[in-house]
Design goal:
There is one protein chain. This protein is of the alpha/beta class. Helices cover 47% and strands 22% of the residues. It has 5 helices and 5 strands; from the N terminus they run βαβαβαβαβα. The protein has helices spanning 11-23, 34-44, 60-70, 85-93, 106-117, and strands at residues 3-7, 27-31, 48-52, 76-81, 98-102. The protein has a 5-stranded parallel β-sheet, sandwiched between helices. Helix 3 links the parallel strand 3 and strand 4 (76-81). The longest helix has 13 residues, at 11-23. The radius of gyration is 12 Å and the shape is globular.
Length: 118
Amino acid sequence: MPSVLVVDDAQFMRIRVRNLLEEQGYEVIEAKDGAEAVKFYAIHHPDLVLMDITMPVMDGLTALKAIREQYPDAKIVMCSALGQESTVIQAIKAGAKDFIVKPFQPEKILAAVRKQVG
């Protein structure tokens, strides 16, 4: 079963995405900020990371770079609010595979996940 690391500082978002992905048969690991994401990636080696950009402690862009530095094959999809286009471009340049705009529809999350891990 493919595993997905869901990284968001908002617990309700993590729960919403977890429920959606678990219903589709994915294993879900949660992290509340970029620092946790880097640590959990090293422990769990998930098939995919869904990561928010704006978070305390360590933002998603910094975490993306840190994970990709250690694991160049890591598949990371960034999540951003409307109006963060320049940040999304930075994320793609830093190795993000895709991005999802918040607030997102469940179908968009599933489409992005399936595109990366099936």
